[in-house]
Amino acid sequence: ALSVCGSAANPAGDDVLAEAMYEQSLAIYEAIDDRSGIAELLMRLGHSALYRDDLERARSLAVRSLEMCGDGDYPTTEALSLGLLGETECRLGNEDYGMELIAQSADLAGEKGFKWQRTRMLRRLADWALERDDVVEAVALVQESLRLSHELGDRISVVFALARLARIAAEAGQVERLKGHLYSDG
């Protein structure tokens, strides 16, 4: 229950409360040697550190979480931790390695049916493709993210994907073509 409250506190902007709840929850999982719970709480604390730009702590927590995940024992947490470590590495200036980890997160999430994480990682990969002027790859990644978001009924994720498609179209001078494509698909 503490980790759930922490998960609600983060999006509400109360990172201090979230971290306190995560730390308390982590202590409980450590006391009962619950590897799955420990891995998840390390990942959640890592995301909190990333939000605060404490990149070294985020990296350390992500690595520890991945170590706890073992050999595919906790694929959901592993996918999230790979994404966390990837984003952290990107912010630390290790963009190629970070994007490789984000791609691994997207792949693992896809293999395990964790669509929500896959949609997020695909959008991040699309941003990177666009930074490298690979418009075709960026569009393909966002289109898959949009399809999965629609399947999930995740309207916020749909908006994020559509915003990226609009950005890609604007930057590539393809606004009219994209508009026609979106409307022709119903």
Shape: elongated
Strand elements, count:
0
Low-confidence residue ranges: none
Radius of gyration: 18 Å
Give the topology, please.
Blueprint: H1 2-9, H2 15-31, H3 35-51, H4 55-69, H5 75-91, H6 95-111, H7 115-131, H8 135-152, H9 155-172, H10 175-184
Helix pairs in contact: 1-2, 2-3, 3-4, 3-5, 4-5, 5-6, 6-7, 7-8, 7-9, 8-9, 9-10
Give a quick summary of the entry.
With 186 residues, this protein is mainly α. The chain has helices at residues 2-9, 15-31, 35-51, 55-69, 75-91, 95-111, 115-131, 135-152, 155-172, 175-184. It is built from ten helices and no strands.
What does this structure look like?
This protein is an all-alpha fold. It is about 85% helix and about 0% strand. It is built from ten helices and no strands. It has helices spanning about 1-10, 15-30, 35-50, 55-70, 75-90, 95-110, 115-130, 135-150, 155-170, 175-185. The chain is elongated and about 55 Å long.
Structure keywords:
elongated, mainly alpha, 10 helices, 186 residues
